[in-house]
Write a structure and sequence with these properties.
alpha/beta, 451 residues, GTP-binding, 6-stranded mixed beta sheet, Rossmann fold, 3 domains, Gyrase A, domain 2
Amino acid sequence: MVATTMAAAMETSFIRRGDGALPVIFALATGTGRAAIAVMRISGAGCGDILRSLCGRLPKPRRASLRGVWRRGTAGGRDVLLDRALVLWFPGPDSYTGEDSAELHLHAGPAVIDGVADALVALGARPAEPGEFTRRAFSNGRLDLVQAEGIADLIDAETEAQRRQALAQAEGAQSRLYEDWAARLRTALAHQEALIDFPDEDLPPEVEQELVSTLDHLRDEMRAYLDDGGQGERLRRGLVFAIVGEPNVGKSSLMNALTQREAAIVSSRAGTTRDAIEARVVLGEVPVTLVDTAGLRETEDEIEAEGVRRALFHVKQADCVIHLFSGATVPDKVEPDCMLVCNKVDKVAAPAGIMGISVHDGQGMEVLRAMLARRARELTQGRAVPPLTRARHRAAIEETVHHLNRAGDDAWPEVRGEEMRLAMRALGRLTGAVDVEALLDTVFGQFCIGK
């Protein structure tokens, strides 16, 4: 029942009530499945009246209170006790959404959740859309768009490094940097407007010199910020390490050893792996997808040839390539910047200067894991603090730099002013300070229901 009710919210748009207020929304903030507690979130104008109907008088703000949760006036006119729950009341604007809000900490039985959902609908509330709580927080000025994306990343964080990066973003580390840029650009734009509006007022020449200097410094700072190798974006999405090499050198065995499970089929028969096999591991606090590929060789077998083609595709897409071989001779063809690793050193020593391992007896495996973890950290620990985390941010800053370049190259005050305004608009789209309605649908549609 509750799944159907929540899914129905997908068809509901952000329609305001007749008095201009958004309707009361509700959603589970906890996952589905067998559990002890389920948290039902409620938010919107009229939330207090709904809470009084469900639980009697309102609890003291931000203090948990044990209350009965009732469905009022059922068939026969009787009230039905649905559960006894911890109830919290958050009057706006001091709440997550900035609206009057509440939480019901219910027992997590499906019948309890369905009963409370039905009672809320009967009282005029509706199920929330994905991300609607956070979207209301954005609309009410509780956070900006970059912080909202940080919250989404925090929910999805798999590792400690991802958690730290997402939490810093959610707490405004990036937003403070972007707002500093915007404030300096606003000041420069005000000076430019003065030069345009009062050309005959003999403004000191230092005004224009300072304006041009500000634009140059902003442009250089943004260029340096963009030149980060994409570390923050890599950490957010995770890395891809491809294991390549000729058939029967132990690629699948290495995959299983690194993942510590039987992720790939191992056989002495060459060409066993025909398609890419993926498995997720954590290396250096970074989520890494390992890809075991088909052996690289010339073949007339149509299926194996397709596997080789896909292996070469993964090589091009990978953040790091582990080229595995066995024997005393380094392969003739190796990928640029790949990590060369010699397997089966329990039988033949590795060539001089090459990392040697034996998946069979474990020689060198701890050293290899440490090397891979170090490589993962190098790829994700950016020079920029706070780091760029999304392609959307990068595109907006690149557009800002483009307009600053044009502003610096043009001596006409009116043209320079227009380029500065366009740069200001590009920066504003980062935090949501300008009209970005279509962008909001994209950003908040990626959230889970209940957030």
